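In keeping with the milestone schedule agreed at the kick-off meeting, the structural modelling team has produced records for the first pair of proteins. Each record is given below as a sequence line and a structure-token line. The laboratory manager (R.T.) confirmed that both were archived under the project's standard naming scheme.
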Amino acid sequence: MSGLNPLDPLSYLGEELAGMRAAGSYFRLRALESPCEAVSRADGREVINLASNNYLGLANHPRLKEAAVEAVRKFGVGSGAVRTITGTMAIHMELERKIAAFKHCEACVVFQSGFAANAGTVSALLGPEDHIISDELNHASIIDGCRLSRARIHVFRHKDAAHAAKLLEGLKDAAGRKLLITDGVFSMDGDIGPLPALVEAAGRHGAIMMVDDAHSSGVLGRNGRGTVDHFGLHGRVHVQVGTLSKAVGVLGGYVCGSRDLIDYLYHRARPFLFSTSHPPAVTAACSAAFDLLLEEPERIERLWDNTRYFKAALSGAGFDTGVSETPITPILVGEAQTAHQYSAALFEEGVWAAGIGFPTVPKGKARIRTIVTAEHNRAQLDRAVEVLARVARRMGILGA
């Protein structure tokens, strides 16, 4: 405390940052200097990009760019207001109708981000007298939405549907609504939520069932419709959240469900009510992406072919990839400092893969998170595995 400056009430931040540096968790932002592609340019060098969420390679697709440019010519660069005033353009409504049809739901509302979609929806649907049953590894946006709702939060063990059902059973006589919520694919470990068992538990106990399909959108299900389609659960999940920022390649989030749900969110979801709507270019590019999901399912096939190839190569090299079942493939290294040092060394060797440690993941479970895309080729993946293994051996992460 002796180093604090009484004239600067924010001087404590310097000590906090010093602590991060000492713990090895401090990072600086890398600047992408090219489109986000399988090989990108960042901080002055060409690197194999295993750090993005651009699963299907749509972030620089010509169709999306053309749609964005045409929308700017027709509608301008901004909407000028929130959706409830003058910020709803015809293309916003068209996008929502297109997503609802894609997801086999009655209606859809688009939010400015996936984070806003989760946080805004949970906090709008529930209040202090209600109960939320949430997986312990759910995304931060779900956690924040739960807190904002001021509902009672009951956390179940990761992917333990029996534990979730037990919590619901214990609440059968409690007043208030119950919401059971899970990620479809968990963003740090790449495993798939046990949606069928959770849906059954929610139905048995009269709970609202909600799934965040951010990392499932464009990845699982027919044409990338997500975990509800993957498991054949249409009509049994009340609230489906998806993202426009990952496989779709642009920006935003959405919620799909009944017409009443969406109308209610139009009236009560605070991020929707108090944020200016998507600019025309973003909206049109998202719409073009959904056309491509329907027209080019082979992109998802390539994504999964690359995923299987890369996972097998990492396993053959001796890496521990945890419980991953999807293109999100962590390489577990233990301590945050090791993960960040490993990530920095990989970048110097031409591979961009993020080091992730506490508080994003529990202490002792730091990792390099890798994500392949449909646009990587085998030579790039082979080169990436060679670099990953060589640097890991040099650092003592893998045996010689």
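The second protein of the pair:
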Amino acid sequence: MTAENRPILFFDWDGTIADSMPLCFAEVRAAIRQMGLPMPPDELIVACNGPTQEESVDVLHIPHERAEEYLKARREAEMALIPSTIKLFPGIREVLDRLRQAADLMIVSNGYQEYVAYSAECTGLGGYFKRIEAAKHGRTKAQAIGELIAEYRPRKAAMAGDRLGDIESGLANALPTAAACYGYGFPEEWQKATAQVKTVEELGDVLMGWIA
């Protein structure tokens, strides 16, 4: 098996590998306090973990004329908080150790490149991923996966994520796609997935089966 056709496993970062909800709450609240805006209810902050930060402007009802201020404040808070706040789901490191023996691992995320890369470094996963592809203006997650498939031409590939956008992005590229039901999505989002997994250990078993 050459490097050119080695299997690839694509992962979302937040809610699939990283238990980043505490970080999301901390950075959003820090940005809102800095801007002097009313603090949004918890359910709106929860809804921000998955979409891009640009999309969270509307989720949080940030005045559009202050969107750039919010994005700057949130990114600064995010980068400052990562070392003390970002966590992995228990057991995910062991699962990735197993999977990377059989496939190249890649992250495709709606987060900023520097956020995902720094988070991976701070959690000790910096060397685990062949590529980290983050959000780019005008490019969807499905398109990012398609570009990576065209570049690497894997013998087999699969996708794992916790939100509907992850699942639809994998399926749009004809990939078997696992819904990480231990993450931040909802049952109605997971129904489209090829498989629904309740634990990180089950995720490892399913992905290994698909690329075997």
